Structures are given as structure tokens and as C-alpha cells.
Amino acid sequence: MNKAKTLAFTLLFLIIGGALMLYGLSLEVPNYAPVRWGLLVIGYVFFGVLGTGVSTYNSLYRAFKWGNQEGNPLHKLSSRLEWLALALLVPGWIMVFASVYKPMETTYIYTSFNPYSRIAWNGVLYLLVGVGIILSILALMGEKKDTDRPIWNKVIKLIAAADVGIILYTIAADLILDANLGAVFGYLSTWVLDFGAFVPMMYVVLSFYGGIAALSLVSYAYWALSRKDDGGWVKSVARDGLIATLALSFMFAWWMWIMMTNQEAWPWTSLLYSGPYFKLLWDAVVFAGLLVPIVSYLVATFKSNRHALLIGSIGSLVGMFSIVYTSVIIPQIITWYYSNSPISPSGSTWLYELRTYLNGASPYSLLQFTIIPHDLYIFVGGAIFFMAMVGLGALLLPLEEDEKPRHWFFR
């Protein structure tokens, strides 16, 4: 795609995405919604973990192939992938602020930081991850030819000299954010204790699974529009996607086993196995998110087939969104009548629970989750804004391997 078309589509996405988000912010957020963490929370987890996944995956290849970047299958894509990671992080960051009742008061996360709050750590870690990705982009630019601005040359070369430290810092910040996001939802008061330590581990695996899918999808779109990509990375990425999908399959099977074999988890188990979330589990997660990618990545690995990689990446993104949806929403839709959860202190509510049992009544009820217009407009606008960010990178930054900085800011 030529520069004029790229500029036109970028401006179009900026206008549409920005307008939808502004309109969504103007809508009322109902205080009476029974499920308070809705689509925007799902959105900032989804985009955030995708961004950290792309960044971690790219950074690990750069670290392990240090000194021999020609052996790195992502070497020609490194700058583009780091910008992709930042572009994914931006809508997630927007949704973090938009998901609270009073967005402007989220500055208290930084001005009155609470080190015991996982939510507060999310705000800080998003910022630290963003700093690491920006530094990685600048370091990669420093490896290119000199620009026409001596002062800028000195700054960017200094950053490039610290590349190893930046890579390690970025990997650490990415993984800690993934684990902390998992901890926020794993330790919700309605879950049984088994899930608390498990969900952070699953989110770390989920970041690789989703990150590989995101970079595969965007790289396929780039190739379809420009035909400049030689595709030398396809086989390696497909292989890694297969490994990540198999790892996630194991983690998800482990999660399901915990739910089936723990009597305290039967309310959630029934929702997924035979209740209203049956199709979400078996169609979206197991079939689209695990089986389809495994087969597609196998074909792409042995045949170096872009189209198979595309199918696998789309299935993975469907699966990832569904897993995030499950881990965010399901703990919130069960409300207990006499206790917070099956892990209430022993002897605290036994009389009420015994009366409920003798009367043949359920000790809990299900809350209805609905997507409110405020969240929907901001989520869709954020997704479109992500595409605008990808276009901005192509217009303003030297993201190709041998591309010389040519834009006014970098001259």
C-alpha cells in the first residue's frame, strides 16, 4: 500500500475510532449493573496481554540470538513488532481509564499508590511496560543508519548501547504484568482458593499464545497489502504457535480438572459444562481456540503456509478473548446468599447454610451480564484506534530493516 493510501486509512481510523470512544464516554454508566467489571475490563486485559505477548516473544528472540541476529527469524520484523506491541497496549490503556466510574480520579493510582492493591499495580505495570517497549523501539532505530541530526544520533546511539538491559527489563515487566492481571481475577473472592495461584500462570502462557497470533495476523495483512515480506519467519512462528497452543491446552485442561474434582467449584463447573456458558467453553475455547490452531499451526509448520498460519491465528484470538471473558465474568455472576464464597471462615455461616440445605434451596443465585452501550462504543472505538496506531507507525517510523529515518522528527 502506498503512502497516500496509508495516510488516508490512518486518518479514517483515527477519526472513526476517536469519535466512537468520545461518544461512548458521553454515555451514562449505570451504577446498578449487577456485574461491574464488563467489556472494558475484558478489553484492557485482552489488548494488554496481546501487547505484552508480542513484546515478550520478539524480545526473547532478540535476547537468545544476541550477536547473531541473522539467525533470528524475526530480525527483519523486530521494529515493526515492537511498534505493534505498543499499538496494542494503547487501546488497553484507554480502556483502563474508561472502565472506572470517574476516569480522572485514576491519577490517584500514581499520586497515592497502594502497594497492596493488584489493581494499582496494573496501572503502574502498564506504564512500565510501555516505557520498555518505547525504549526497545528507539534501541532498534539506533541500529539503523545515522540520521541527519547529530544530537538525535547521540541520544539514540546511547539508548542502543543499553539494548541488552532494555530487552531484559522489557521481558520482566511484560511477564509481571501478565501474572498480575491473572492474579486480579484468580483471587476474586467468589473463586475457590485453587484458582488463585493457577490463573496468573495461565495468563503468562496466554500472552505467548495470543501474542504469536496477533503478530501472525498483522504480518499476514502487511504481506497481503505490500507483498514485500519474504515469509522466512512463517515456519518458526507457526512452530512456536503450536507449542504455545499445546501449553495452553494443558493449562486449560488442568483448570477444568480442578473445577471437576473440587466439590466447592461445582457452581462454576455447572455453568461451563451444562449451563449458559456451555457453547463458550466447547465452541469458542476448545474448538476454535485450541483444536483449530493446533491443526493449522501443524500445517503451517511443515508446509510454511501463510494461509494456514492465518487461520490458526484467528482461531487463537477467538480462543483468547473467550478465555479472558471466562476468567473475568464467571466469578462475578455468582452471588452467595449467606457467605462470600465456599471458602468463608469455618463456622461463620453454618446455621444459614444448613437451613438453606434443609429447605432444598440454592445457596447462590446467578447475576445477568449485559454489555452496556458505554462499554461497547469504547471497545469498538479502541479496536479501530489500534489499526490507526499501526498506520501511524508505518508513516512516522523507520520500521523496515534497511529503512533510513526520513521523517522530520527523526532527521
Automatic annotation (TrEMBL):
Q: What is its main location?
A: membrane
Q: Which residues cross the membrane?
A: 7-25, 37-60, 81-101, 121-143, 155-177, 197-225, 237-260, 280-302, 314-338, 376-397
Q: Which UniProt keywords apply?
A: Cell membrane, Membrane, Transmembrane, Transmembrane helix
The UniProt entry, under InterPro entries, shows:
Electron_transfer_protein (IPR052049), NrfD-like (IPR005614)
Record flagged with keyword Cell membrane:
yes
The question of whether Transmembrane is a record keyword is answered with yes
Q: Topology relative to the membrane, per the entry?
A: Multi-pass membrane protein
The protein, known as: Molybdopterin oxidoreductase, membrane subunit
Organism, by scientific name, is Conexivisphaera calida
